[in-house]
């Protein structure tokens, strides 16, 4: 295996990119930054360190807490926009921080949070020649 095949583009991970064809999210498209961006990683570490010892025994973080922390980190440092999110009323829903907070931090929307995480991890793995647009407002 060539080491160059393991290279990813940190600039794309930091700035973000539109992702589509996300497992479990149908035709929803997301503008996400990668989970390797420094803001995400710092926040994740800070929130894990802030947990009481009972929630991180033996270096293992309580799964419920990890889901909560992941949701907050995705909300504040990864997800920036979405397309094709349809409300129960049949109308398209524009991105809003408050609605994203519900989707990313509620156990009822774990599938959405997992999809955002998959998209963000895909951004981390992309290289210079990956398809997609790097600018949010394209």
Describe this structure in words.
By secondary structure, this protein is mostly helical. Helices cover 42% and strands 9% of the residues. The protein has five helices and three strands. It has a three-stranded antiparallel β-sheet. The longest helix has 16 residues, at 110-125.
Q: What keywords describe this structure?
A:
mainly alpha, single chain, 138 residues
Summed over residues and divided by their number, the pLDDT gives a mean of 88
In terms of structural class, how would the helical and strand content be classed? mainly alpha
Largest sheet: 3 strands, antiparallel
Question: How far from one another are the termini?
Answer: 35 Å
List the total number of helices: 5
Q: Output the strand order for the largest sheet.
A: 1-2-3
Residue fraction in strands: 5-15%
The string of secondary-structure elements, in order, is HEEHHEHH
Quick one: how many beta strands? 3
General form: globular
Q: Classify the helix fraction into a percent range.
A: 40-55%
